[in-house]
Amino acid sequence: MATTRRVARVAELIKREVSNMILKDIKDDRVGMGMVSVTDAELSGDLQHVKIFVSIYGTEEARAQTMEALASATGFIKREVGQRLALRRVPEIAFHEDRSFERGVKVLSLINQLSREREEKEASQSD
């Protein structure tokens, strides 16, 4: 069992390397259909499994195709991570779409809408 600090350090290295690979090394055109960024990597305590969270900006079709492309490139990414980080055992990689940014934007727009409605209500009451 690896220490918590080592798990966090290896997860950050994996996140950085996968981000670079998506940007430069993956030749699949489907990955470029939506703007892709790696938002997080969660590594299990035994360093055997990693969940890589990606944020994809684009249409639903572009998101689906990008996720398919990432799934098909998993073998390449795993091999490259093993070579670049020189790990004894390379963790199994699973990609997950991160939609937290969209939820944040939605919540922010609702807050702004409520604020505008409150200002309009206060303005109409003072008249």
TrEMBL record:
A Pfam family this chain is assigned to: RBFA
GO cellular component: cytosol
Domain of life: Bacteria
Keywords linked to the UniProt accession: Cytoplasm, Ribosome biogenesis
Major subcellular site: cytoplasm
GO biological process, one term: maturation of SSU-rRNA
GO terms assigned for molecular function: ribosomal small subunit binding
InterPro entries: KH_dom-like_a/b (IPR015946), RbfA (IPR000238), RbfA_dom_sf (IPR023799), Ribosome-bd_factorA_CS (IPR020053)
Localization in the cell: Cytoplasm
Assembly behavior: Monomer. Binds 30S ribosomal subunits, but not 50S ribosomal subunits or 70S ribosomes.
Similarity-based family: Belongs to the RbfA family.
Reported function: One of several proteins that assist in the late maturation steps of the functional core of the 30S ribosomal subunit. Associates with free 30S ribosomal subunits (but not with 30S subunits that are part of 70S ribosomes or polysomes). Required for efficient processing of 16S rRNA. May interact with the 5'-terminal helix region of 16S rRNA.
HAMAP family noted in UniProt: RbfA
Protein name, per record: Ribosome-binding factor A
Phylogenetic placement of the source organism: Bacteria, Bacillati, Cyanobacteriota, Cyanophyceae, Pseudanabaenales
Gene name as annotated: rbfA
